[in-house]
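Tutorial sheet, problem 5. The two components below are modelled jointly, 233 residues in total.
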Amino acid sequence: MSVLTEKGLLQPFMILPGLDVTQPFSRTTQGTAPRNHSHHRVSIAIPTHERINKDPMVLRTFAAQTFLDAGDVTSRILEVVKNFDQVDGNKVTEKVKFTEDLGLDSLDVVEVVMAIEDEFAIEIPDAEADKIVSIADAVDYIISHPMAK
Amino acid sequence: MTAQALYRNLLRQAKQVTDYNFRSYSIRRVKTGFRKNQQLQGDEAAAAIQDGHVQLEVLKRQVILGKLYPGAASVMDSPNPIIA
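Model answer (structure tokens):
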């Protein structure tokens, strides 16, 4: 019995509520089922109310919606920019432009955009990265990026 | 490739260097090199950019070589440097 988990790992068997996973699989079931006899069906009775909403597995399909919420993205980007060495944290708002409002030069902007890449675990191609000149640009790019985490 | 893109690509490569000491040096070298040449104009600027492209290729080769022949990991790359 294997299950594709959130991290994409195949686990040897499903961890179900009420099942003691520290014991060998066959002993925890009926007690009568001999080991290594695959023709013996082992049934585990799990009450329906336990099966619903108590399964520790989070199943997610590859078709899942993966775009991030704009509010979360904004606050995370603000935090990244505030923590940047050359930036005065009090000046940072959602509307600032890196060069005009924060006094960064073009090299600093490259570093800020790379810090944002690291935060969301993506790599922004050169053509797109050169266009990001403000917090708003960065937010727009991240919320439209399907792989941003 | 714009100067900004060159800077970005150099930093990206520098961050991929396997060895902690070479990685730190590469990142520092890219940043200080661009700061030092920031005010250059005309031919001097073009020559510096050209040199940057050469150095980018060098760095790419060094990243690959570092991955082919990794040395012992530095204690600084340990998840818990205090007790490593």
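Marking note: Residues 8-14 of chain A have pLDDT under 50 and may be disordered. Full credit if you identified this.
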